[in-house]
Specification:
mainly alpha; two-stranded antiparallel ribbon; 2 strands; 3% strand
Length: 234
Amino acid sequence: MATNTTRRSLLRLGTGALAYGAGAAAVAGGLALAGEAKGAEPLTVSPALSGLLDQYAKADAVLCQWYKDVWNPAVEENRAAQEAIPHIRISVPGYRNVLDEDTPPYIFDTANPYAVSRAKSIMSTPTDLQSADPRWQETRRAARRLTITNRWRERKLARIDRAFEARGLQQQEDKLWKPIHAATDAIIAFRVAHVLDLNAKLAHMEQVGTCESDPDEYQSIVRADVRRLSGGEA
């Protein structure tokens, strides 16, 4: 498992979505600068929205640190334990099958899913379909050994997975995500008072990927905020 393979990795924006969102934020920022250039009193992000953004930043920082200190080391430890379980490779010669055809030499390997599947198939071959060639029995013994070893590996892997799950890390991750989701929901629902609020809100929506994960909702929110700022909605 790769380092930091978590829901955090889902928050990576695609180039197109990022460009779209960044363009919207740039427009809002430009409107703010234009307003100031006309001599209007300089604006600042509304305290309530600023507080929500701070809540998100703090919760996000806690989660990122937890990934670094707890999740990533645990994942690496789990992967190392899995990789420490040995595989087995068995080379066998070809044999003449019941159709009087010569099969090529083969390597059974627990690291090869197809080889594992082939070994199971050989083990289930009915007696009347088995070759009389002595080399067939050698192949069948190899298939049996591989099948037994693979079952042993599966049991070991299952124990490692259960031990990982027992640490409750996914539950901890869920708990740490809750304040992040709550802050984001509140930011998205925030009724902007002016263009700097809109700019800050858009920047956050880009950060969390709203413009990519739900473009229709993203556009709906932006339209509603623009209508409000233009006096079209209370």
